[in-house]
Amino acid sequence: MSGPLDDIVATIAETAPDVRGGLAGRRVYESGANPSGETQLAADVYADELLAERLLGVEGVSAYASEERGSVRHSDGNGDGAYRVAVDPLDGSSNLRSNNAMGTLFAVYDEPLPAPGAAVVASGFVLYGPITTMVVARDGTVTESVVEDDGTRRVVDPDLTLPDEPTVYGFGGRVPQWSNAFAAYVEAVESELKLRYGGAMIADVNQVLTHGGVFGYPGLADRPEGKLRLCFEGHPIAHVVESAGGASSNGDRSLLACTPGGLHDRTPLFVGDERYIERLEAALSG
Ligand code: F6P
Question: Which atom of ligand 1 approaches the CA of 199 most closely?
């Protein structure tokens, strides 16, 4: 017996080989920009269209939203479905031209979008690295699977938890744009952990899930709201990391306690080891 949440996760896994297979020929930029004003690669648009079609075909899904489209798309047939899926179809897609890792990130909400973090009922990501893996958070448990070429999943860790011993960190944004308080925090972190930053949030957070540590993209002097989007990046990655025993923050409180005003709202974002998130909040509040 499978329910809508199983079907949503299976649909994303089954779509992963198609997204991956379509990358090589889609490293060129489209003429338009996404709703956040960023250039789109043909691969962003391709992944978004595949996921929209397939997820809106899942029984129980009434709406699909993505970083690549301005408004929520509603299902024709399942208008009263309980679940709304928010997707970043290709997180870190600027890594495509340099052939570095990137991924597909999703959150399933049981309220209309844009919804509060408390409405996330499942979340996860596909990581297109040397192999394709999928991490899914549901009911307080995180599983990691390898996604085979036919879209089937082979579980490699049925209960993924953040390692107790933190090892790595990665922080985005240009250093001169950081606040003094954040820069002082980073100086302390740098003396304790080692840098791992690749420019795709999913890949960078997966390093934290694997090795322990902390990832963040802070508010910047010229962009106090930060770069990452609450609905498409903040809520899903916070739900994954918190379900794995870690913590999340917007600098002040858990990202899952945050409610977006608009679908494409951005947020400062910090996830990882609970002690490092606590220290970050203390540093930023001082
Ligand atoms: O979604 C935006 C994104 O690609 C994230 O995956 C990543 O963490 C960030 O931007 C990288 O930004 P920057 O190029 O400023 O390091």
Answer: 11
